[in-house]
């Protein structure tokens, strides 16, 4: 009898131990993610193409959206319910539009095609060509730290090294809003680069000649335009018989600009921290030590970098061929880079990232305080939404998931979904009518998809 009781006890101890492991696994997984379901619906009424590259919103009115497609630009005034073509002034055949930027201070919209940059000053009704041979555009918004809103254009054609032009949007590109010739525009930027030394000496006459518009404020001459050659990229030598030529073995992928004085240069090898207008760029030793484990080009075109535009900006980047997420916090204090494993723990590979920022003030976010400061100021938890990070991630069999984090990518709410695999871009607006966010995903073959995420589901 005693022997039987002992066997009975051992059996139940084993069962109890198994149950405990299962319970702990469930508890741990809940700390990392919460599973929910979301339904994506197509939003293509009025589109004449289903190959959509990007969607952005008017900064001052998020009901107004602009979509860049393989055949021109479309506009919606009802949060994507319907679209109309806005291509007056664009060349024929209509260009592929890869990126759109809204400059609210200048009431301007910039659209990047395959090298060409177009500007509209009337909400997209009319467009003029303002740049040729450009690989990327980005906007530094007007803020307390940035005295002037600026458009940045990356030109990879004038010299071996890329040239980045930084131009205050309020002055316009040309004296009159007319369709300039391609040759004139090319010479315009070549002159900006060649005459940069004179511009840097605050030469008002030379600046006015190049930009074609009088400057009224005596204090802003130095801040109107800069042309910076990116001449510090890694190089290698190609030999062909007796001839040898030096080429860059490191390539610029994108320009990153925020509402603070730093600007950021995303190359296929690293992310450089730069002074205003991409002056004085330098590497980060901590970031270098993290990235060296992932091969020579860990941040190539397969990597996507997203960043917050309000409050204390953060940067989020997925590393090519990896499930890890690179996060930089607290840029106002130098910040630090973190290799975040939370998505890898979920078995998800991030492919697209978008950050929706809530804080408009230069206040510290929760992760900007060290442990001593949290104790000193009695900071025990996040008191308000900061960044809301949206990620499209893939699991086995190419299934796409939507994941949302409100704590700088530490934990995630995971939404199973019916989203197709051919995603081009991700974009989000806040919508009080749904008590949360409307998320847009563009595709190369199925147009625009959208879904609603309720705030109560991600808190």
TrEMBL record:
InterPro entries: WD40/YVTN_repeat-like_dom_sf. Gene3D superfamilies: YVTN repeat-like/Quinoprotein amine dehydrogenase (2.130.10.10). This is Photosynthesis system II assembly factor Ycf48/Hcf136-like domain-containing protein. It comes from Candidatus Vogelbacteria bacterium RIFOXYD1_FULL_51_18.
